[in-house]
Each structure stands twice: as C-alpha cells, then as structure tokens.
Specification:
five-stranded antiparallel beta sheet; five-stranded mixed beta sheet
C-alpha cells in the first residue's frame, strides 16, 4: 500500500510538473510573439583565415575579443561533424520547437523533485540562446528566460540556421570557439576536411570544454572517456559509417596553438587592414617563392652583417596579372632591434636614381631623345644649386643610354628640363604617388629622386614599363577576387620597350661571377638608387614575368656609407633573380604587341642622324614620326687657307682646302682638355676676316641663371658671367645694357660688379653670334 501511495504521489507530481511546464511554454509562446526578431549571432567579430594561393594557411587571426572564432557555413562542415554533435547534444533537435519538454521534465524531476544530480536539459537552441543573450541559466528565472529565447529563435529561424550559428560559437576549450576555428587550431585543417575520428573528438568538447580541452595534458582522460562513449553510441546509431576501430578515435591527437602558422606577416597585416571582412581570404602569395625570397634575404644579411647591413625588404609581383608573389616587409617580424613589425614596403623613402628611367621614358615618348642622343655631363649651375654626380666628376658628352645606366645626375636634370608640361612631376601625380608636396618644393631634386615613395609604388611604376606603358594597381587577393583592371596609359609601348632595352645593358654588380655566364638575351633590365645621405639602397628590375624590388636600409633612417644601391641592394637583387631562374621557368620577354620601332644608324660621336662627314656609326632604336631627326653638327668641313693654315675668310679667293674638324661646345672641350683627350678642333679665322658669323651655334649663358633674382648690398656684389660657345670661338665679349664690361675665355668666368636694377646681359662670341638674358638685382635687406 505504501509503495502504491508513493507511486501515486510521484505520478501526481510529474503530472503537475508536466502541466506546469506546458502552461509555461504556452505563456512563453504567447509572449515571444510580441518580441522583434533578434540577431542570431551577436559576437565581437570573427577571426579571419588567410591562405596563400595554393591553400596553405598563413595565419588565423584573433577576433576583436581575443578569440579564435572563424565563421564557417554549415555547407562547409562534414555531415559526420553535424551528426556527431546532434548525437552528443540534442538527438531530437530536428523535431522539437527549440525546447524538448521530455528533457526539461527529466531535468526538473532530477533537480527539484528527487533532489538528485543537477541536469540541465538544454537543447542546442537553448544553448545558443544562453550564449546569444548572455543568460545565467542556473536559476529558475534564468532557465525560464533561456526557454523563452530558445522558442523565439526557433520561431524566427530555420533548424539549419540555428545549427550553423551554434556550431560557430560553441566553446571548444580555451579561447577557441566554433568548429571552423577548432578544426584549424587542433588539426591544422579546415572543417570540411575533418575525419570521422576528429569529428567525434570535437563533438564531445562543448559539454565540458575545460575538462575535455585536447591541449590540457592532465585532463585527456576525460576527453578519452567522452569520445569513446560517443564512438560506441555512433557505432550503434550509424553502423555502416563507423570508424575502422575504436583505436582510430583514441589515437586522434591535437596540435598546440603555438603550432599555428604565422607566415608572410606584413602581407597578412596588409590584407587584414583592407577590411574585406571575409572569413576566408586567399591571397596571391606563392608560398614556395615567399620562402625562397626570405631565405635569400636572411642569408644575404648574415653574410653582410659586418657592414652594418641588418635589414631589408623585398617585393615580387607578376606584372602580367599584378599579383603579389612574395612580400617581405622586414628581415624579422619579431626582431625589435630593427623594428621588424614595420612594413618597409609601404614606408616612404627616397629612391634616388631608381626613378630616372621614367624621365628618359617620358623624353623618348615626347620625341626629345633616343637612346644614342648625346647629352652633356658637365658642371652646371642653376640658380644657387650646383648638381654633381655620385663620383663628384663629369664625363663630358655621353649618350642617353650610358647616362641612364651610369646614373649621371646632370644629364638627368637636362632631360627633365626638356620635358613638356605636365613634365615629370605631372607624371608622378598621374601615377597616383601619394603625399607628394608642391612641385616647387622639390626643384631640381625631383629629377634626382628627391621625393619620398614606397616600394609598392616603385614596383608599380616598373610594372608599367613591362606592361607597355599601362599603370595597373597591385593585387593581393584571389578570393575575394580583385582585378587589376584596364589600367591607365602612362607611356607609349615604344617608349616603354626602349627604356627597358636601355636598362638591359646595365651590367650586373662588379664581382658577380655569373655575369659573364649570362646570355645577352637573358640580360635583366634593372636599375639601382641611393638616397641622399646613404639612408636607402634600392634595386628594381624585370626578372622574367616578375617585377623585383629590393631595399636595404634602416627603418629609423640611420645612414650607412655602405647603403649604396649597386653595392648593397644590387647583389641581393641578382641572388634572388638567379634563385628564381632555378625555381621555375621564367618568361623572359615583355609583351608590348606590335611596335612602331626601327633600328637606324646614327653618328657615333653626336648621336644625331649621320651627316656627310660622319665616319663612325652606332645603331639605335628610333620611333618613326617621333624621335629627333637632327643631322650631325659635330663633324664639319672647314676651308683652310693653304698659306696661313687658318680658316679661310668667307668669300676669299686665296688657295684653300677642305678639312674635317669636330665642333664641340666650349664646356665639353674643357673637359676633354682636362682629361687629356685632345680633339681635332678648327683653327681660328684669319685676323683679317673680322667678326663674320659663319653658321654654328650661338653662345649659351649658364650664369647668371635664367629667372633668378640676385641681391646686392650698398657696396655692390660680384655676379659670375659664364657662357658656353661653339668650337670655333675661344672668347666671349660681355655687354650690360649695350655697354662693354669685359671679356673671358669660352667657358671661363667673368665677374661683374653689380648694383640694384634691371639689366640686359649680352654674350657675343668671336664669330659675332650673340645671346641675351634679363638680369634683376635687388637691394639686400641689410641696406
């Protein structure tokens, strides 16, 4: 009788409990009908998984709240992972309405009626509700709130949406949440590649993530027991899908978080800051080439550490697609001694002569020069600036190709000053170079690389040459896909091709034994640069289908006399280039399409089209209808009086013979004379001829400088007068406002004592050829 009575009381309590729970559920269902639809997931961001182009993980980032939480769609999770989770957590998930009354009744009876072990009775939807709304479900009112929110989620979302959200936020031990992050951290693979034993291992962790953490050594027994139990249950439920044996489950081992890859850090940082927000990003990076470049940089720095060379950057991209293949922003990301976390590829630095190819390319495109055009490498004074070369010497007449390859400063300034508007500065602005100051700020330093530019921008400019003059943006990701687009036309295909061909003659660094072994058709078009004060050494060029950029220096700008482009960056450039050649096939030819180009012969001395008296010739590229067509004026036939050996007077009937002479400007003749290189110059006119102009070039006033205002104090000041004359004139006669003030030898300096005022300066050579310049002299503030 007593047993029957106890049973009756228990049935009555259960019935009352069931009615109470049903009533509560009904009330909850009515109440939640008034609530707006909530967000299914409300977390502080998700991690991002960054991969190289072959699918190798570069980094799994932390979320904003320092969690590994990677959003993974349900379709990318293997069915075994989903089924194992349901089997472990909520077998009736597909059939209940967010709350399982049977589970709740069992939990309520055990906890509050029989006062036994505390059982939660939570479904997957209820667990998601607790995490989503931050509910403390340990109290009756907390449990009620959890139930109501679970019913709401089930009302507003599909089962797959709820399951997807749960599997992306459920804890898997430590700061790891979600299947996507757990599969990468513990097993080094995306969730889609999880095996059945790995899925069974992950499925048991959320019930007790602290005790079942795979990385907690003392607690692995708890994990082993739980997954063995689930494996037995799986065998019973899915007998045809069971693992080969229970040992497969027990032998699953997890990796440590310390084993997570952290590769190409500066590129990954750059991709993360682009803000794509994608859970999975595939970069353009080639992992094997990245490793190759990093090894070459490390080896090079170790070998040259005694020279104070401790840091460097390298950027390699395929100019055909503008995709980055290797990206090394420093020599050591975690090296605090070199500020290794700085991305040197995006830092603004002075490129020195590495910018000069684009000055010559513009001049070729504007029809001002061709590769064999003769330029002057002589002392030059412009305003108060005296530009000089790296070796502090001048070479005299030099071809454009030699001036570019040998990084001569004065010819570069000469060519830059030839350019028509918008000139070199306008070219850089059109190319999108960021943070340029006003053009007047740079002055002549602009032609010498006196701006600040990033390696990314420099590599983009060199890719423009390789792409036939079309500028395209750099691409760093394949997924989400980014196209470089049609680009912007900056140069003609012809000018681009010629410029690269000029750079191809640049020899490899001295002492490079491989230079003599490199076939001419495989010669690399490349250029170096050294910033003012030896703070930066650059080397850039085209290596097969790649643009390669190398920088050596210190991020804090500390100078080092060893930071010379050819000596510091050049050797590393070619070590990487040679390694790339052995790594895989290189496409050695840039594609420019049909080109309007011809090879023509020019005078070897003047670089101009041959005149009737030229005897030595060179071949050069020529753009029909654009390249300069001036005929050589260096070689001229001169009538020499047989009796006096002097130049015959025009119109003279005395016996005379024609002889060939070279007509060099006086500044170049001075260089030849100082260098011990005599030239066959014409003799002077007979004194009885008088000042009779006989063709040739008029003088050129190099000082006072055109457009410059001078100042004089109360005592006056001396202003230098310098003029360059043709070879048949040896003296210059100076006039100020038509009054003769003195004479000087051609190319020598005459000092005029000036006072404030506006003047007209005239220079007249021995042949009567004249030139004039305006001069303004103001009173100095001292007056």
């Amino acid at each position: 009788m007593m047993a029957a009575s106890k049973i009756a009381r228990l049935v009555r309590r259960l019935t009352i409990s069931a009615l109470l729970i049903a009533s509560l559920l009904g009330i909850c269902w009515l109440l939640i009908g008034l609530w707006p639809r909530p967000l299914l997931v409300n977390k502080s961001g998700f991690s991002q998984a960054i991969y190289d182009r072959d699918g190798h993980l570069l980094r799994l980032s932390l979320s904003s709240d320092e969690k590994y939480r990677l959003w993974t769609p349900l379709r990318d999770m293997p069915p075994a992972m989903v089924d194992a989770t349901l089997l472990e957590e909520d077998a009736w998930f597909r059939w209940h309405s967010g709350v399982n009354p049977v589970s709740l009744l069992r939990a309520f009876s055990s906890t509050y009626i029989r006062l036994g072990r505390r059982i939660g009775g939570s479904t997957i939807t209820m667990q998601l509700a607790r995490q989503r709304f931050g509910i403390d479900s340990r109290s009756p009112w907390g449990k009620l709130a959890q139930i109501m929110r679970a019913l709401q989620l089930d009302r507003d979302y599909t089962k797959d949406q709820i399951l997807e959200a749960y599997l992306n936020v459920v804890p898997y031990g430590g700061n790891i949440e979600g299947v996507g992050a757990a599969s990468i951290v513990y097993f080094g693979k995306p969730a889609s590649d999880l095996s059945l034993p790995e899925a069974l291992t992950l499925a048991v962790i959320p019930q007790n993530p602290a005790m079942r953490n795979p990385l907690a050594q003392p607690r692995r027994t708890a994990l082993a027991e739980a997954r063995l139990r689930l494996a037995h249950q799986w065998q019973y439920t899915y007998p045809t899908q069971s693992p080969r044996g229970l040992s497969d489950v027990l032998n699953v081992t997890a990796m440590s978080r310390r084993e997570l890859p952290f590769l190409a850090p500066q590129l990954v940082d750059r991709v993360l800051t682009l803000g794509h927000g994608e859970a999975r990003t595939i970069t353009t990076l080639d992992g094997s080439i990245q490793n190759l470049v990093e090894r070459q940089l490390k080896t090079y720095l170790e070998r040259n550490r005694n020279l104070g060379i401790t840091n460097g950057c390298v950027l390699l991209l395929d100019y055909r697609t503008m995709q980055v293949m290797a990206y090394v922003g420093s020599a050591g990301y975690f090296n605090e001694g070199i500020a290794g976390q700085v991305n040197g590829l995006r830092g603004k630095r002075s490129p020195g002569s590495a910018l000069k190819p684009f000055i010559y390319a513009l001049a070729i495109d504007q029809g001002l020069i061709h590769p064999q055009t003769m330029l002057k490498d002589t002392a030059l004074r412009i305003a108060e600036y005296d530009p000089e070369n790296f070796d502090r010497d001048f070479l005299g007449p030099i071809s454009a190709i030699d001036a570019l390859v040998r990084s001569r400063n004065v010819p570069a300034i000469e060519v830059a000053n030839m350019l028509r508007a918008p000139g070199f500065y306008g070219f850089l602005k059109q190319a999108g170079i960021q943070d340029l100051r006003e053009e007047s700020f740079y002055g002549l330093a602009l032609a010498l690389g006196g701006i600040e530019i990033t390696m990314e921008e420099m590599v983009g400019l060199y890719a423009t040459l390789a792409n036939g003059g079309v500028l395209k943006p750099i691409v760093t990701t394949l997924d989400p896909p980014v196209s470089s687009g049609a680009g912007v036309r900056m140069l003609s295909p012809e000018a681009s091709y010629i410029t690269l061909d000029m750079l191809r003659t640049n020899p490899r660094p001295s002492g490079d034994f491989t230079y003599s072994q490199t076939p001419s058709q495989l010669a690399i078009p490349w250029k170096t640069g050294t910033s003012y004060g030896f703070r930066d050494a650059w080397s850039l060029g085209i290596v097969g289908q790649y643009v390669l950029g190398v920088w050596i220096g210190n991020f804090d700008g500390t100078p080092n006399p060893n930071f010379v482009g050819r000596d510091a960056a050049g050797p590393l450039f070619f070590e990487i280039a040679d390694a790339l050649r052995t790594h895989g096939p290189l496409d050695e030819a840039t594609e420019h399409g049909p080109l309007n180009l011809k090879r023509v012969k020019v005078c070897a001395l003047s670089g101009q089209l041959p005149g009737p008296y030229c005897t030595h010739f060179k071949d050069t590229w020529f753009i029909p209808g654009k390249s300069p067509i001036t005929t050589c004026q260096i070689h001229r036939a001169v009538m020499i009086d047989v009796k006096t050996g002097l130049r015959a007077c025009p119109g003279s009937t005395a016996p005379a013979v024609a002889e060939l002479y070279e007509f060099w400007p006086s500044d170049l003749l001075k260089l030849f004379r100082n260098g011990g290189l005599p030239r066959r110059t014409p003799p002077p006119l007979d004194a009885n001829c008088g000042n009779v102009a006989n063709g040739g070039a008029a003088p050129l006033i190099s000082s006072p400088a055109h457009g410059l205002t001078y100042s004089a104090d109360s005592k006056g000041t001396e202003i230098p007068f310098i003029a360059v004359t043709d070879a048949d004139s040896r003296r210059v006669y100076w006039f100020v406002d038509s009054a003769s003030v003195g004479t000087s030898r051609s190319g020598e300096t005459f000092f005029w004592h000036a006072h404030p005022g506006n003047f007209l300066i005239q220079a007249v050579d021995e042949q009567g050829r004249a030139v004039a310049e305006d001069l303004t002299v103001t009173a100095s503030e001292a007056n």
